[in-house]
Structure formats: C-alpha cells, structure tokens
Automatic annotation (TrEMBL):
Residue intervals of the Urease accessory protein UreH-like transmembrane domain: 8-211
Spans traversing the lipid bilayer: 6-30, 50-70, 82-105, 130-151, 163-183, 195-222
Pfam families associated with the record: DsbD_2
Alphabetized PANTHER family for the sequence: HEAVY METAL TRANSPORTER, HEAVY METAL TRANSPORTER-RELATED
Keywords (A to Z) from UniProt: Membrane, Transmembrane, Transmembrane helix
Residue ranges that the Swiss-Prot or TrEMBL entry lists as coiled coil: none
UniProt protein name: Sulfite exporter TauE/SafE family protein
Length: 224
C-alpha cells in the first residue's frame, strides 16, 4: 500500500470531526420519514460521497499528469509537490486549531457550490432510501478545506487511478465517524474532537508536510 494512501486515510480519520460538523446533521436528517430501511440511508449517502471523492481525484490526477507529460515540464511537478506540502502544513494548523487559514479556500469553493447545491436539493425529501446515493455524490462536492488539501496530493499522484485511490482512502478515513453519526452515535466524535487526539494528529500531518516540502525543495535545487 502506498504511503500516500495511508496518509490520506489517516488525515480523513483525524479530520472527520470537521466532516461531522459540516455534513453530520444532514446525514442524520436524511433518515427522517423512512422508518423502513432507514439504516441503509447513511450507507447509500456515504457510498455516493466516496464515489464523488474518487471521481474528483481521478479527474485531477489525470489532468495534471497529462499536462506534465504533454509539456515535459518535470520541474512543474516539483513545484506542485511544494504546493501540496504547504497545504499539508496549513491543514495541520487547522486540525490542531492553531490557525484557521484553511477556511479561506472553502469560501472560494462556495462560488461553484451554488451551482451544484440545487441538484442535491432537488432530491429532497428522499422518495426512497436509494436516492441517498446520488444525493451523497452531489454533496461530496461541498466546499471543504480538507478535501482541497488532499486534492493537491491527487494532483501529483501521476495518474487518474492513483488520484482516485488517494481520494478514496481519504473518504474511507472519514467513513467510521460519518456512519456512526448517521446512527446517532457520539463516542467516536468525543475522541476525535479531544485536544490530545487533535494535537497528535496535527503534529503527524505537520511533520509529513515539512518532510514533503523538504523533498520538493531538494528536487527543485537539482533542476535549477
């Protein structure tokens, strides 16, 4: 298993508290009015959400790798790695609640979200539990700083497959918390939002970001 896949999963798990805050209430509300098969709704919703992440990762990974291969600008890949490292550092500061600059990128994404959100809203209220699948796919494009940070990894992954897998692993990391909140469980939420858990997780992400930045700078020094 690639270290990037494991890192993406870890970030998803650590940062799931953010996902619970943004989407958790909605995921729980979807089950209202569906006494039968209501337990399947969180599964359908999160399956759609993960599929959307994989799709975004495939698009970004394929586009960037194709451009680099076509232009032969290998130095651009090193610069992209540096950008990804910076995003990791910003993400670490956000997870640790030391600096909230990551939220500025969510505001940028909201400009595009206003065109997508009506599609998801048109599916509400859910006529059938299965409708939670396409709803989750649309809601996976909700502006999220965590998603944008992992997308920078997908951009430098080298292919559509690797980009999709990185985003999928990130989504899988968020899955336990999102499924549990869909079933009204709160124990995991308390753990993930504890200061000790956040500090340890943020420190791990920060170290990886610094390491990635150092590796990117070394590549750039050889190419200059």
């Amino acid at each position: 298993m690639s270290i990037d896949w494991m890192g993406a999963f870890l970030i998803g798990f650590i940062g799931a508290g953010h996902c619970m805050g943004m989407c958790g209430g909605l995921a729980s509300a979807l089950s209202i009015g569906h006494q039968q098969n209501s337990r399947m709704i969180p599964i359908y919703y999160n399956t759609g959400r993960l599929l959307s992440y994989a799709t975004i990762g495939a698009i970004i990974g394929s586009t960037v790798s194709t451009l680099i291969e076509f232009t032969q600008l290998n130095q651009a890949l090193a610069w992209l790695r540096l950008v990804a490292a910076i995003f990791m550092i910003i993400l670490a500061l956000y997870v640790g609640r030391w600096w909230f600059g990551l939220l500025a990128f969510e505001k940028i994404g909201q400009r595009f979200w206003k065109y997508l959100s009506p599609i998801g809203q048109s599916l509400l209220p859910l006529k059938k539990p299965l409708y939670a699948l396409p709803f989750g796919f649309v809601w996976g494009w909700l502006p999220c700083g965590l998603v944008y940070s992992i997308l920078t990894w997908a951009a430098i992954s080298g292919s559509a497959v690797n980009g999709a897998l990185i985003m999928l692993c990130f989504g899988l990391g968020t899955l336990p918390a999102m499924l549990l909140i869909g079933y009204s469980a709160t124990h995991l939420k308390k753990i993930q939002q504890s200061s000790l858990f956040r500090t340890i997780g943020a420190s791990c992400i920060l170290l990886y970001g610094v390491y990635t930045a150092y590796a990117a700078l070394i590549l750039l020094s050889f190419s200059l």
